[in-house]
Amino acid sequence: MDKIAHSECNKLLVPVRDALDILSGKWKLPIITTLRFGVIRFKELEREIPGITAKMLSKELKELEMNQLVKRTVLDTTPISVTYELTEYGRSLETVILELGKWGKAHRERIFA
């Protein structure tokens, strides 16, 4: 019985760890949440996320792009502009983020009550 329970636990734990590895850190969820509202330029994105540096934003966006969650588009303008948007795959995180938000709100109310 213990072996079955352990293997079932691992079936859930491995994909949860994978998801947390991709979304881990202080900035990825705020970036994804901001991009839910549409295409945005780098500087605008930087302004929308208080406390993030340009260097950190660039690093996190590269990782999100590598994981196919964010699309980067270089516009042929002077000066060159770069925009970011969620991919269709990135949009698949919407329900996860909304549920995390609901849970976080309920948790905050419970702890601070």
Low-confidence stretches: none
Average predicted confidence as pLDDT = 92
Q: How far is the first residue's CA from the last residue's CA?
A: 40 Å
For the record, the CATH architecture stands as: Orthogonal Bundle
Please count the beta strands (DSSP E, at least 2 residues each): 3
Number of domains: 1
What name does the CATH topology carry?
A: Arc Repressor Mutant, subunit A
Radius of gyration from the CA trace? 17 Å
Roughly what fraction of the amino acids lie in strands? 5-15%
CATH evolutionary superfamily: Winged helix-like DNA-binding domain superfamily/Winged helix DNA-binding domain
Number of discrete helical segments: 6
Spatial strand sequence of the major β-sheet: 1-3-2
What's the helix-strand series? HHEHHEEHH
CATH class: Mainly Alpha
Class based on secondary structure composition and strand pairing: alpha+beta
Q: Which percent range fits the helix content?
A: 55-70%
Instruction: Describe the largest sheet.
Output: 3 strands, antiparallel
Principal-axis shape equals globular
GO molecular function: DNA binding
Pfam families: HxlR (PF01638)
InterPro entries: HTH_HxlR, WH-like_DNA-bd_sf, WH_DNA-bd_sf
Keywords: DNA-binding, Transcription, Transcription regulation
